[in-house]
Amino acid sequence: MTTFHRILPGAAAALLAAFVFMGCAQKKASTAKNEREANASATYVAPGEKDEYYLFYSGGHSGQVYVAGIPSMRHITTIPVFAPYPATGYGFDEASRKMIGNFTWGDVHHPALSQTASKYDGRWLFVNDNANNRIARIDLRDFKTKQIIGPLPNSSGSHASSFITENSEYLFVNSRFSIPLPKGRVADPKDYATEYNGMMSAIKVDPKSGEMSVAFQIQLPPFDFDLASTGKGPSSGYVFFSSYNSEMAGQEMEVNASQKDRDLCAIVNWKAAAQAVADGKATTMEGVPVLDPSKVPGVVYFLPIGKSPHGMDVDPTGKWIVAGGKLQPSTTVINAEKLVAAIQNKGFDGDFKGIPILKYEGVVEGEVPVGLGPLHTQYDGKGNAYTSLFIDSNITKWKLPPWSAEEMKDLTKVVLDKCPVHFAVGHLVVAGSDTIAPYGKWLVSMNKLSKGRHVVVGPSQPESSQLIDISGDKMRMVAEAYTEPEPHFAQILKVSEIQPIEVYPRAENKDPNAVWDKEQTGVTRSGSDLTAKVIAVRSRFVPDKIEGKVGDTLTVHVTNIEQTGDMIHGFGVAEMNMNVVIDPGETKTFKIVLTKAGVFPFYCTNFCSALHQEMQGYLVVRPVDGAAAPTVSTSPVPPQAPATPPLVASNPPAI
Ligand code: K7E
Ligand code: CUA
């Protein structure tokens, strides 16, 4: 749970009441007998069959991304991003260790699939690290993290990210935690309103490689920018940020940031901003072009939204933008056409620090009474919206405008259905909601509390996610699954839309230190630098002895020469805090400083064959005064793949 537990005393009482209610509701929370079979078969993926969709969950403060299948809701894999992960050797080899830098954790909130023409193009998945102001890119060709950018300059608490534009031109980031700028400057939090600043960042995405770079930034008042969504159709070219703390409180936020009935959301014309930067209207801070929107008109507008809004979600047509006012019992529906007109006609109501404030009445279509604690809204592309209600602990389905005169008079009439969830939902995701063509069909509710829903596992509890069928008029909750903390947002992608690889083709391995046969392997010395080039193949390492001495720096390049799917080898070194895992066709490099004499076994950590246990060797570290290490040693073990057929079948078992 992150941003929405700042509550007024009154709201706190309501929240408490809600939890008490939830306690009572637990008995009713199970599935009726007559629905069980239908629900089970709706989500049953028989052994040997496959799920229809990927669910990419953010892993919150685990720093990782989880991949599950829909409809089975089974966890399939974890993609390590911001934290070392021994299971795949991530954060141990040089490349990934450098990528995660000096951090051993991150806080992943919002994944974004790359888009072309407002549809998922299946190339990349971007995720943010709210803690250390970073953005990462995962390549969906191999489901591996390829780049981490950050900590971003001039920015802190990248919660409001990553939100991607229609053609993946930019990813937007906005600061949830304002700080004095430039970084390193010190000012007391009591001087927050005058000394601290928010900052929006536009991260350029290279259309070919996906490489990210900081393009420009926009300096903003020190609100806590929270969520965002990018425009399309009538809202194309804009990005919408929710924020709380327009009170600009630097301390005792729970009370001080909840004083006003409405907070100021930021509407950024990113095309105009990019043009202003190109026209030389930015100044430079820490090497980044920074716009001051009070001096560059046409770039940023504010819109008052009640109350301490959280989610800000553009619908598939781009016409409706829904804000979840977490401390008010309604969502606010913004009409993008009216908004663009109001900007053109200067329908303003004063300004905040030189940034025009749009007239609320001029752009808001209505406030829909969805219930208590509305957070995030998703869409099915059929004119329906689904809002997560944290306090009421349900998903509320409601009808987007256009509304009839009768409905306008009483917007309770557009609320269509409520589906209880267990308990306290944060984000929800409808398959493809942020594209022009949602898949619809499935909704996943990512709940913050799971107590009482699973077998007892001690005080440290998982998070619950529930799969809801939204294909009919009424929502139907059909399955529940658990993950470790903590999913926030997620993205759903149809499995048939991508073709990931299962081995790295040898021809594509351009690592200059890759070795493919015995003659290329061995250990060489240059001063105190010892370099080993090693082959891993069922069921041996070549060489299987590496000799050095205390004071050496050992660099090992290990190539898994297999070209068979799932023939993965590990390289773990006893008492050296080292484990890399090498996929078929992959070369990985790791370094160890040899500080103590002794003989250190290394072994394959990933079970690969019947002789997996035999896949081992020794790192011999001689004391400085002892016998000199040989300059070159090659392995006595015959190289190449075994002459006999591998003991683990290379082909899938016959059916
Ligand atoms: Cu609502 Cu960080 Cu998107 Cu958690 S945030 S739920
Ligand atoms: Cu190679 Cu286990």
Explained architecture:
By secondary structure, the chain is mainly beta. It is 11% helix and 40% strand. It contains nine helices and 43 strands. β11 (196-205) and β12 (212-220) form a beta hairpin. The longest helix has 17 residues, at 9-25. The model is unreliable at 1-27, 641-649 and 651-655 (pLDDT under 50). The protein binds sulfanyl-(tricuprio-$l^{4}-sulfanyl)copper and dinuclear copper ion (CUA). Sulfanyl-(tricuprio-$l^{4}-sulfanyl)copper binds at residues 2-3, 109-110, 159, 227, 310, 375, 426-427, 488-489.
Q: Strands, helices and their partners?
A:
Elements: H1 9-25, H2 33-43, E1 53-58, E2 64-70, E3 75-80, H3 94-100, E4 112-116, E5 119-129, E6 134-139, E7 144-149, E8 160-164, E9 170-174, E10 179-180, H4 192-195, E11 196-205, E12 212-220, E13 224-230, E14 238-244, H5 253-256, E15 263-269, H6 270-278, E16 283-285, E17 288-291, E18 300-305, E19 309-314, E20 320-325, E21 331-335, H7 336-344, E22 348-352, E23 355-358, H8 360-363, E24 364-368, E25 374-379, E26 384-389, E27 394-399, H9 405-409, E28 415-420, E29 425-430, E30 442-447, E31 463-469, E32 476-483, E33 490-494, E34 522-526, E35 529-537, E36 540-542, E37 545-549, E38 553-560, E39 569-573, E40 578-582, E41 587-593, E42 598-603, E43 616-622
Parallel strand pairs: 12-17, 35-38, 37-43
Antiparallel strand pairs: 1-2, 1-33, 2-3, 4-5, 5-6, 6-7, 8-9, 9-11, 10-11, 11-12, 13-14, 14-15, 15-18, 16-17, 19-20, 20-21, 21-24, 22-23, 25-26, 26-27, 27-28, 29-30, 30-31, 31-32, 34-35, 35-36, 38-41, 39-40, 39-42, 42-43
The protein binds sulfanyl-(tricuprio-$l^{4}-sulfanyl)copper and dinuclear copper ion.
